[in-house]
User: Fold Major facilitator superfamily protein from Candidatus Halobonum tyrrellensis G22.
Amino acid sequence: MSGSAGTTDHAGAAESEPERLVTGYSGRLLLAVSLGWTSIQGGRLLLSPLLPAISTDLGLSSTRAGVAITVVWGLYALLQYPSGRLSDRLSRTTLLVGGLCLACVGFLALAAATTYPALLAGAAVVGLGAGLYPTPARGLVSDLFVERRGQAFGIHTASGDLGGVVAAGLATLVLAVATWRAGFPLVVAVLAGVALALHVWSREGYVLERVGLAVGETGRRLFAEPRLRWLLVAYSLYAFSWQSAVSFLPTYLQAGKSFSPALANAGFGALFVVGAVVKPLAGAVGDRFRRDLVAPAALALAAVALAGVVVASTPALVVVGVACFAAGLMAYPPVMQAYLMDSFPTDSMGGDLGAMRTFYIGLGALGPTYVGAVADAFDYRVAFAGLVGCLFVSTGLVLVGGRAGRRAA
Assistant:
């Protein structure tokens, strides 16, 4: 597909076809972009269970390890708005395939890193490549699905949790038979395959031309509504808690709960096993009931469960707490993202979602550095206790935002 900026009709190729979640054009592309998200998430999340081995090999403190993860998430966040805006004006395919290719380069650089600066450089390229992908992917899902949008988002976001399960299993395997470097080339092979599939299947072509980012216009549109302001702060606290917990959970379980590396990785994987089940269900519940009530209920469950993990003194209680934490934490994104998509104009939804993601993921990217610094100064128990407070505050803000929306209506 080609044409001038601002004229791309993303939904036109599928608008006359039924919304199928598995088969047909819509189902085929949903599965492809979801596998891409699985692979990108799996590669990024692979850093977390490998972090103790990487730190030992390269001689990193907890703070320096946290900074490396912050680089990935920070640059990932920075690209959310530009990638969404560009995918609205150019084509989703251009951003999706470009992001996958750049991520391949970054993961290969991570595998080759022998010094801390080289590790940071690889992390930066991974962050940039990963940052180009998810907002256009969500834009494509919204193009393809309207009536079944919540279910489609549930499947797509659950695919990221499958990446976490893969990361946990792959980390355990490579540490048992090789070194931490061995996992990243496997991720690259899958990413390359997805890029090829999207190139062949998508009815959109590649469009490369200059596009204005319209940052001021987008910012005024998003921040003009009190409801969106409250939701943005709430999502930022959620993202901070999510990135903090996911980045250091295996390390916390080893250092703070005396788990073996294999058991800690299993606990990490449990987050995403639960998430892969919960997210489609949460998306369907959000389609039937009020999303502004389902979302804070999920956050409250996550906060209570994480508090249980912090105070638990036996492995069994920790595992139960992690599972309940995962249920609440992972139920939130499909419900809230569908809620946000309902609020955005159709012709700017990719850019609007990208702008919000840049903000909340950017603030959330500070989470791993926070955990590493607090752990160095005190311990991981103190760091994770602070995340409980963030989740409770986020719960209250979502309720306030929902109330503001109902008053405006």
Summary: The CA atoms of residues 78 and 114 lie 26 Å apart. The chain has 17 helices and no strands.
